[in-house]
Design a protein that fits this description.
mainly alpha; about 0% strand
Length: about 130
């Protein structure tokens, strides 16, 4: 398929999606209100707290190599600010955050299931400084 044809196809799909009625997937032309089903989506993730819960986990599991004794891979977990300057955390997306994907790796040590869950909840809540 030629580039102009691909571009035109994408343009048509984009223009169709701009006129879809929310929640229906099609443009009916009907301006009637949609009925509220009470479904508000997924529950928001509550942060376990950085200073009280997450930071002590990171200091214990990662501190020796990433900020307390040495600074490997330019990851410094010694403060909230230096941690957030790194690329190890993608707020609201623990599934793609290196802090979860790589986790503590020195000597084969990893987060416990509870620690991993708390770090993930903190990231999924936006990685707040609370």
């Amino acid at each position: 398929m030629s580039k102009p044809l691909v571009f035109l196809s994408l343009l048509v799909l984009l223009s169709i999606s701009c006129f879809e009625k929310p929640g229906t997937g099609t443009d009916t032309g009907d301006t009637a209100e949609t009925t509220d089903t009470g479904d508000t989506g997924p529950e928001p993730v509550v942060s376990p707290g950085f200073e009280a819960v997450v930071h002590p986990i990171l200091i214990e599991r990662c501190g020796e190599c990433h900020g307390i004794v040495s600074l490997e891979s330019d990851l410094d977990i010694s403060t909230y600010e230096t941690l957030m300057e790194s690329t190890a955390i993608i707020p609201y997306d623990s599934g793609h955050s290196l802090l979860v994907l790589l986790g503590p790796h020195a000597d084969g040590g990893w987060y416990t299931d509870d620690e991993r869950s708390q770090v993930m909840d903190w990231i999924d809540a936006g990685a707040p400084n609370d």
